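For consistency, the fold was encoded as tokens, which produced the following:
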Amino acid sequence: MSTLIPVILCGGSGTRLWPRSRATKPKPFLPLVGDTTLFKATLDRCPATEGFGAPVVVTGTAHIEHVEDQLGSSEGAQIIVEPCARNTAAAIALAALRLPEDAIMLVCPSDHHIGDTKAFADAACAAAELAQEGWLVSFGIEATAPETGFGYLKRGEAIGDQAYRTAQFVEKPDLERAKSFLAEGIYAWNGGIFAFKVGDFLKEMEAHRPQILSAVRKAVDQGRSDGHRFHPDEQAFAAVESESVDYAVMENTDHAAMVPADMAWSDIGNWQALHVARDRDEQGNATRGDVELVDCRNILVDSDGPKVSVIGLEDVFIVVDGNDIMITTAAGAQKVGKLSGAVNQ
């Protein structure tokens, strides 16, 4: 088996988790579930003791210090510093061009929560075996609800006893279509976790998005190293087209496969998702900080200082961060990113 290299994508501002998540310190670097940050938990799921290679972290200039603080003394780790954001196809291509062609990349977003790390490790092992055989593999997260905020993967014919061809990539559906996916039982959420051999990924990029690969290659060739940091050329990288790896490669390749993964996964995409991921009491309440609840159900309160007292509310989220207080119903959680405080950072 070739070396399995964690490629950790670390960017964004997590505006739907405002005011706790901010552009200067977004959700990967916060201890949102338990005491470990999402970024550190991502690293911890890929230890050298389990056969993983040194991680490659792709991040932006604004987040280098957070990455280095939480990366610690990980021997052999690389940090690729994007001069500007150009979406996941370019980010993954940057990492691929800095790795041996026979290495297998395990591409992981840094801002997801995975409750069952053993299930993750099992899925990673199965995905690596498929990647070794030339497949480009997605993790198909078991769909447990008719979510409209995720893309879906349709299961095709079986590959061995633990994987399938990906028959179709489906964009975020409306509620009725999401309900039909759940009832049909052959659709999984697309969690944005991938495994593929470096050489195979680059061949697919060359076949389907040669202009992106060419521009990224130029940025790498003209880039510079600074210890464990690598800086692609700023001008060359600015010319790269912004596109997701799903659109650029995964929806176009003839070698797309999926490994089912039932691993208590959440993208922690908003306060509703975080409420579900956290430990809750018998009334469904989750609290952090100095909080008093009376006759409340399905409440989330997260305060970094002031005591918060709540009486008789249901399905409400309250967040206190410094001088900012955000209150929303569960139904309104998707709109938090549109608040002026979240937008104007």
About this structure: The chain has a mean pLDDT of 95. DSSP finds eleven helices and 19 strands in the chain. The radius of gyration is 20 Å. The CA atoms of residues 31 and 37 lie 4 Å apart.
